[in-house]
Structure formats: C-alpha cells, structure tokens
Amino acid sequence: MRFPHLFNPLKIGAITTPNFTANPETLFHINKPSPTRSSRLFKASLVVLLSISINPSFAAETIKNDLLTDTSPIKVAAINAAPVRFDVEASLKKADRLVKEAKAQGAVLVAFPELWLPGFINGDPQYTMGMPPKPFSKYIDNSIEVGSKEWKELLKIASDNHVYLSIGISEKNTKTKNLYMTQVLVGPDGAVIDKRSKINPSRGERNFFSDAPMADNLKVVNTPLGRIGQLSCGEHFKVLMTYNMMAQHENIHIAAWPYNLTANDKPWPEQYWLHMVNTASYASNANAWTVMPSIGRAAIFDNNGFIVAQADNTNSNFAIAKIDRSGFKSTTWKSDPISYNTLSLLREHYPGPHEPKEAVETLSTPDYTKIQ
User: What digits encode the pLDDT tens for the residues 16-53?
Assistant: First the structure.
C-alpha cells in the first residue's frame, strides 16, 4: 500500500530525504516483541507502515511554506456551543453569530465540532444526543451538498467575517446517495482550502455515513497562518492516520470532537478525559498547536500538549487563546515517533507478519435513501 498524498512530491512539493548511511543498529534498537505483548492493532498498524514505499526524493523541503510570511502570534477559537439541532438554516445563522463573537475577541481562526451542521448522529441508543431524527429524511434534507445554497452560505460566513473557518458538516452527494462526515477549512476570502472526510466512520456512525478514500483525506495544507491539518474524533486513535498527518509537520492541528460533556449526559462524560488526554498527546507528538472544538467543553493545547485555554458552555460559546508561531518556519524539528528514519528501520527490522503485501481499500458506502 502506498500513501501518494504523503510520499508523492508532485502533491506536496519536491524534496530530498535524509541519507541513512549510519548502521541502523547504532541508531535505533528494536527488540523482537513477545507474542503475548503484541496486540493485533499494533501488528496491523505496522503491516501497513511496512508496505509504504519511501520515495527517496521526500524530505525536509516538503514542510516549507512560502505563504507564511508573518510569524507573529495569532488568536484561535474552539467552539463549544451546540447547533440548532437538525435545522441547517438556523444553525448557519448561529454559526455566523458565533464567528462574529470570536472575531470580536481577536480570533482569526475559528473551529467548530465534528458534524456540527446539522448535528451529530451515531444511532447508539445509549447516546441519546446522537440519535437521528425520525423520519431520517429530515437529516438528509438538512445535510449540505457542495455547490448548494447552504454551501455558499457557509463559505460566505468566512468571507463576511474575514476569518479562517473550520467546520464539520454532514455532506450529501445526491448523485451517489451517500453521506460523508466532512471537515471544511475555508479561507477569509471564502475559498475552500481543505475539504476532507472521515476515512472510517466509527461504530454506529457507519449505519449512516460512507467511508472516504485514505489517499484524498490525510493531508496538511499550507496557509498564511501556518501548515494546518484536520482530523475528527476517532481518527485520533488510529495510528496510521495520526502518523501520516504528523509526518507532514503540522503547525496547527484541528481536532474536532462531537461532544465533551461533563455532567448528566451519560455516557459522554465518561469520554471526556479520554478525549482530552488523546488530544494533548497528539499535540505533543506532532509538535503542533492543537485546537479542540467540541460541544460542551472545548480546549486549545500548545505544541507541548499543555492546555492553554478551555471553556464550557455554561458561561461561554468558545475557548480562545493566543498561539506562538515563532517556530513555524523551522524545518529542523523531528520527533522519533514520526521520523522517516524510524519508518525505514521498521521496514527493515520488523519481524512480521508481512501479509498482505498489497493492502486493498474497501469502502463502506450506505445508500441514504434506504435508511429507515
């Protein structure tokens, strides 16, 4: 399996790789894992990593960003307010109002939770706040199609307020009859900078939402704010996705979660610390300032994983913080967990298993017209 979006220089710039001439055993020692300690997840992750072909032209130049000419501090905001559930028009108006509030406090980047438009669903009866409407056609009617009136209204929020806007939407494709859990990053001119979809919707989400191809949906984009990447919710638990994003050297990561509720909304409160710790770990491993929008409680982490701002919806609609961009131009930092040296050594020394040699991407694409 190959990740062309990561290793193809035509996609992300021409570059050169570090020359690994040193004896690998002197650089990094790998002990053969005990079968009792090796989990299937660990093995599966390494199988895919081992199948990646490293392009010898790939290296540090990839992370340069000519759009970044100003490295002064900026303010970013992470929304914790809820939408007007299953009402896309009312929610778009609320989104505009929230962006205006954040902009008034100095935010130049405003990030919204996963599937904020028109509301999060997963269908698990335990998660009452995630149950879809009845009839389900109401959810389809309030989902957004690219090019639609609602889509244009969404882009206009960014341009009218002159901010960078990241927001999670239920994206519908009326030709294929599929729904996608999509994240959109829009620039202050109303142009789409990044549109990516959740690669493997989690658990009950799979009853409604389609998978998305890996190659088109794991990328970091250059912007005047810095290099920005996006993932949503459960994608932060998947080693192959986080490795891929971190290896592209994000400056700012948007980690969109659906809920982080802290009282009387079981079982969401039980997930709160898991989400927080996971996001803090991501920020530290990626060396990226990480913006965590989430209904109920939002947070912002510095590039060491420390919380620099958090807010809950009892007294605020968003968390806001100033982030330090002084190191965004540097291309010298490397983290052992995501270095190409580590990847090369895994390919050379990992004892197995090595099957399958060629991974096959099979996508689940439920037809939304058949959902009862």
Answer: 333 333 333 332 333 333 444 344 444 444 444 444 33
CA separation for the pair 348, 346 (Å, rounded): 5
What angle (nearest 5°) sits at the alpha carbon of residue 86, between those of residues 84 and 88?
A: 75
Burial of 59 (0-12, 13-18, 19+ CB in 10 A): middle
Predicted pLDDT of residue 247: 87
353 is written with which tokens?
Answer: 């298993």
* pTM > 0.70: yes or no: yes
Q: CA 253 to CA 233: how far, in whole Å?
A: 13
Tell how strand 289-292 and strand 307-312 pair up.
Answer: unpaired
Which of 94, 172, 198, 219 is labelled catalytic? Answer: 198
Is 198 a known active-site residue? yes
- Asked if 114 is an active-site residue, the reply is yes
Q: Which residues of 212-236 are buried (b: 16+ CB within 10 A; e: fewer)?
A: bebbebbbbbbbebbbbbbbbbbbb
Long-range CB contacts (within 8 A, 24+) of 143-151? 143/88, 143/118, 143/169, 143/170, 143/171, 143/172, 143/179, 144/88, 144/117, 144/118, 144/169, 144/170, 144/171, 144/172, 145/171, 145/172, 145/173, 145/174, 146/171, 146/195, 150/88, 150/89, 150/92, 150/117
- The confidence score (pLDDT) of residue 344 equals 79
Is 233 tagged catalytic? yes
pLDDT of residue 110: 98
Alpha helix ranges (H) inside 186-328 = 239-247, 268-286
Q: Provide the sign of the torsion angle of the four alpha carbons 164, 118, 319, 275, taken in this order.
A: negative
Nearest in space to 187 (alpha carbons), one of 163, 161, 151, 156: 163
| Catalytic hit among 114, 150, 205, 235 | 114
Residue in 75, 172, 219, 233 annotated catalytic:
233
What integer pLDDT is reported at residue 5 of this predicted model? 34
Among 227, 239, 204, 237, which Cα is nearest to 129's?
204
pLDDT of residue 125: 80
Which pLDDT score is estimated for 254? 98
Question: What's the rounded Cα separation, in Å, for the pair 343 and 351?
Answer: 14
Those residues of the chain that have pLDDT short of 70 are: 1-62, 262-270, 332-337, 340
